[in-house]
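tool_call: predict_structure(chain=1)
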Amino acid sequence: MSKSILCAVDLGNAETDNRVLVQAAKLAEQDGAQLDVVTVLPDFGESWVSGFFEEHHHEKAVKETSIRLREVCEQAVGAERNVKIRHLVATGTAYQEILKTAKTAKSDLIVIGAHKPDLQDYLLGPNAARVVRHSSCSVFVVR
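tool_result:
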């Protein structure tokens, strides 16, 4: 049976991302598991907000985020390890997309970061909590 670990990162917090990625890579290495790394973009396409963006905003955002995700992963785990990672960019609500990605990838473990919530970190706390509460696989929370 092949094992799969899904690491969820929020590219807006480099310090936490680095700790989460390093821990996820260690866990994947220990178990000989495939490491998948996902980040989630908000979905502005179906709201009134979408009218404020250029026509191909979403495609451009996904492309730029994918490049940034690869860079962040390489900085955290090195170039050699990074080429073995599946980099995923999802669009929607963070916790829902993380759970959906884990189900699709048949992940055995989700690694996610959490830190003391304050105003700038407000959204991460509830997302991590929801992933823990609703996941069908184990969740490793990095503080």
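agent: The CA atoms of residues 5 and 109 lie 5 Å apart. Proceeding to next step.
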